[in-house]
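I am still getting used to backbone structure tokens and would like to learn alongside you. To get us started, please write out a protein record for me. Start from the sequence, derive the backbone structure tokens from it, and show both lines together. Once you have written the record down, we can walk along the chain together:
***
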Amino acid sequence: MRYQLYYWPGIQGRGEYVRLALEEAGAAYSDVARGGNGMGAMMKMMEAKGMPPFAPPFLKAGKLVIGQTANILLYLGARHGLAPKAEPGKLWLHQLQLTITDFVSEIHDTHHPLGPSLYYEDQRAAAKKRTEEFWKERVPKYLGYFERLLKANGGAYVTGRRLTYVDLSLFQIVEGLGYAFPKRMKAFEREIPGLIGLRDRVAARPNIKAYLASDRRIAFNEDGIFRRYKALDI
């Protein structure tokens, strides 16, 4: 089966967590909105009758259309060896991904604390205040939690020896924070040696390494979730 991924064509965004899973699995897929009339096809899917997705990303797998990043990864993980087979482990992993989803929203809010309908330039003061709180309270809380999980499980990955889609998502989190806040993240790295090692192990995996070197990997930019603004990285 060839999957069809629907997401905005110019950014990594929330769709990147799905791309990483598909790439690691070696799954055949098309990034629909990046080619031809893909944007039109994506909008048509969201306007369809029945059970249309609310917003990208969503994945078409045969007759199934699955929305929400964590929900898509729950589906892919079970089918491509990126999640435990037993129900408790599968649900635990989904729980971790939902925690990452919360963190991603907080990352986005560092540069758009007053809402996405306003430009960053219209909310600079609020963004600076939000970013200070984010790095003082929220980053240590979230990344500290995953750092403790790594240490407690004693393996190369969050759940132990085997890589899961949560490890791929944490790779993206560490990479993204390093892009958006290079100074702050460099100073914080000493607090999360386990996650830094995890990032490096994921980047070295053959399928991920090939993906990162390809044009399928969209570069970080100031239209996505991770945005680099010098005024926020001091």
